[in-house]
Amino acid sequence: MEMNSESEFAVLKIGGKEIKLPVVVGTEGEKAFDIAQLRKETGYVSLDQSLTNTAVCYSSITFIDGEKGILRYRGIPIEELVKTEAFVKVAYLLVHGTLPDEEQSRLFSTLLNKNSLLHEDMRHFFDHFPRGAHPMHILSTMINALAAFYPNVDLLSMDEDIELSTARLISMVRTMAAMAYKKSIGEPVVYPRHDLSYCANFLNMMGADVHGAGTDVIKIRGVKQLHGCAYSIIPDQIEAGSYMVGAAITGGDVTLHNVIPKHMEPITAKLRAAGCEVTEYDDAMRIVRHGAIHPVKIKTMPHPGFPTDMQPLMTVLLTLADGTSIVTEGIWENRFRYVDELIRMGANIQVDGQVAVIEGVKKLYPAPLRALDLRAGAAMVMAALAADGVSEIDETAHIERGYENIVEKLQALGADIRRVEVPVRMTRAM
């Protein structure tokens, strides 16, 4: 609502006193008397049983008329959203305030699927709920527990991080709801599959037989009942790629096991272009770099293009290239926030919008660094390994939520790296 531009007032006379009540106008032209100062001016309050004649809040995005059965969100009738729009599009609308186009919808759906997995420790919670516990009680408990496993949510400020956090919550609720149901009927939980769409993934977790999700033809074969099963998730493409880049940065010779080489093709192609030797086996890959790092042009794209999560790591590699590299971010805005950290180490990088121009330098220098997010944090680790000296990285919780035992794995490869606990400093209010 807003104040009437014509300065319209209603006049109330009581006890020989006259007061003016401003007229305010709602989002769809409905007028109301502003009685916020009524008690202060007269000592009286208004009585409106059941609030049938009272607007109780300001809203610039919604309109409700209970008598006429009208509910609009951002000008869109709720019945239209229910009948015509898919869940992913409505979720996007709630987050961004506008309905997505087809490309935005596809990218948001991909983000939801990528964040459907729960922290492994959260899965153990389900082992301690009694059989027969109400699924909603289980679900509410698990949602509250998310804050303990993702504590940095309260510190988010950038649009990219907010969208990621929102997508994580939306997607994980789906996973937790399915697990809660499985627990309530005494069956084992089933992990989600990233090769299925949002809805098909949920159905598959319940034991449905769905094929072709994400293509022009979806085939659903009926089953007699939903049942549990054991399911193994695919290897983490980005984690594997991070260690491959680490080997390239340090000039190492590393063999990675439990990988799917076909899934690594976009990353492998750029590493080979940068002068690395990559050998593929059935479920393993070996990466070796002997000579100089060649400059490369990279543009991040949706799958099956070069993944945006590998962009910070490849940028670190290209800071040491013999020439000029260009990295274009085609997915997320503000993905180059970490560049200032690399510049502090001696990197020569110029960022213009979504494009980074990297002039290779002979070496990087140690510096105090921050892990601004998960992938930027992993990039800082690799940059520190390449620098000649001691670097310290703060805010490592970002890193360790996405890389299990990263310190121990790098130590096993010969890296001089260790985890240090910094005491929390308490401040007293003045």
Pick out the low-confidence regions. Answer: 1-5
What number of structural domains do the residues give? Answer: 3
Largest sheet: 4 strands, antiparallel
Summed over residues and divided by their number, the pLDDT gives a mean of 82
For the record, give the distance between the C-alpha atoms at the N and C termini, rounded to a whole number.
Answer: 40 Å
The chain-level structural class is alpha+beta
Architecture overview:
- The protein is 35% helix and 17% strand.
- A hairpin with a 2-residue loop joins strand 2 and strand 3.
- The two termini are 40 Å apart.
- By secondary structure, it is an alpha+beta fold.
- Residues 1-5 have low confidence and may be disordered.
- The chain has 3 domains: 2-74; 85-218, Citrate Synthase, domain 1, CATH 1.10.580.10; 237-412, Enolpyruvate transferase domain (UDP-n-acetylglucosamine1-carboxyvinyl-transferase, Chain, Alpha-beta prism), CATH 3.65.10.
Topology readout:
Elements: E1 2-3, E2 9-14, E3 17-25, E4 31-33, H1 38-42, E5 62-65, E6 70-73, E7 76-77, H2 78-84, H3 87-96, H4 102-114, H5 120-123, H6 135-149, H7 159-184, H8 198-205, E8 209-211, E9 219-221, H9 237-250, E10 253-257, H10 265-273, E11 277-280, E12 284-288, E13 297-299, H11 311-318, E14 324-328, H12 339-344, E15 348-352, E16 355-359, E17 368-370, H13 374-386, E18 392-394, H14 397-400, H15 406-412
Parallel strand pairs: 13-14, 17-18
Antiparallel strand pairs: 1-3, 2-3, 3-4, 5-6, 6-7, 8-9, 10-12, 11-12, 14-16, 15-16
